[in-house]
Amino acid sequence: MNPTLVGFSGQPTQPRPVTLPNDFGKPIAMTASLVAEDIHFSTTTGVLTVEKLYRSPQGLTGYGIIAASGESRERRAYTLDDQGETVVCDNGAFGVEIPVDDLYELLCMALQAEDALKTVGEHALFRAAANED
Questions:
Q1: Residue-number span of the structural domain to which 12 is assigned
Q2: Residue 125 belongs to a domain
Q3: What is the C-alpha end-to-end distance of the chain, expressed in Å?
Q4: Which residues of the chain have pLDDT under 50?
């Protein structure tokens, strides 16, 4: 994701009311600053994906992802609340408290299942630089 820590004026972005749309639970509303965003298109699947990451002054993290292809669209939203040894994860329908070590293990399992090496950079076209042979 691309960090977005400052606004157009060069000053840190101020928290503002944000509502993350969610097709799989309630929309998630919070007052937060945008800290990162990413937009990418997969030439393999034809899916455009928009991701945004927010942080509230209280430390709550909000994550919204929208994936669209043709006429179909899927919107998901989550909050992550770091409690020290655990993280409270909420998708707008259910909240679960997960130990941080288990969360890391789940992330590793998800990356392996997705075969991350195959999908890294699928939205970018790699070409040799003009000064390379």
A1: 2-119
A2: no
A3: 31
A4: 1, 123-126, 131-133
